[in-house]
Amino acid sequence: MKRVYVNEEWCLGCHLCEYNCAFANSGMKDMAAALKGKPIFPRIHIESNDKITYAVSCRHCTDPICVMSCIAGAISKKDGVVVIDKNKCVGCLTCVLVCPYGALTPGETGIMQKCELCTTNSRGEPACAAGCPNHAIVYKQRGEA
């Protein structure tokens, strides 16, 4: 299965992945109208320390603990992609506590959100990878025989 991978050596820390993600999930056609002067709620976020900068997003684990821990049954795995049913999520934050990667965050309404590989809003490549100017974020298949 294809996944999002980050090469931290190439990450500039420009946050364009966050803006592209927030825009792709906004449902709007104009990026300026969707994001200008508003708080953004990306499903990927940039972390940094003194030495490296890197993007954090869902890794779509083989055996995701967030799915097993969701008290509302809102998180499931479909065709290898871990997804959230926004109609079932109660915003309890249990998934945030159990995810070892810090990939889940509350959205604008308090309902949880995470990277779903742009499966419902894209033409094949996640917006974060498509919009990364330095190609630090890639969408590809690795290590499967």
Number of helices: 5
Order of helices and strands: EHHEEHEEHEEHE
- Spatial order of strands in the largest sheet: 1-8
Q: What level of helicity do the residues show?
A: 10-25%
Number of β-strand runs: 8
Structural class: alpha+beta
- Can you give the mean pLDDT? 92
Give the end-to-end Cα distance, rounded to a whole number of Å. 11 Å
Poorly predicted residue ranges: none
Which term fits the overall shape?
globular
* Cα Rg: 15 Å
Instruction: Tell me the strand percentage band.
Output: 15-25%
Outline the biggest β-sheet: 2 strands, antiparallel
Task: Explain what you see.
- By secondary structure, the chain is of the alpha+beta class.
- 19% of the residues lie in helices and 19% in strands.
- It contains 5 helices and 8 strands; from the N terminus they run βααββαββαββαβ.
- It has helices at 16-24, 31-35, 65-69, 94-98, 127-130; strands at residues 3-6, 45-48, 53-56, 75-78, 81-84, 105-106, 112-113, 137-140.
- The strands form 4 sheets. Strands 1-8 form a two-stranded antiparallel ribbon. It has a two-stranded antiparallel ribbon with strand order 2-3.
- Strand 4 and strand 5 form a beta hairpin.
- The longest helix has 9 residues, at 16-24.
- It is globular, with a radius of gyration of 15 Å.
- It starts with a strand and ends in a 5-residue tail after the last strand.
- 30% of the residues are buried.
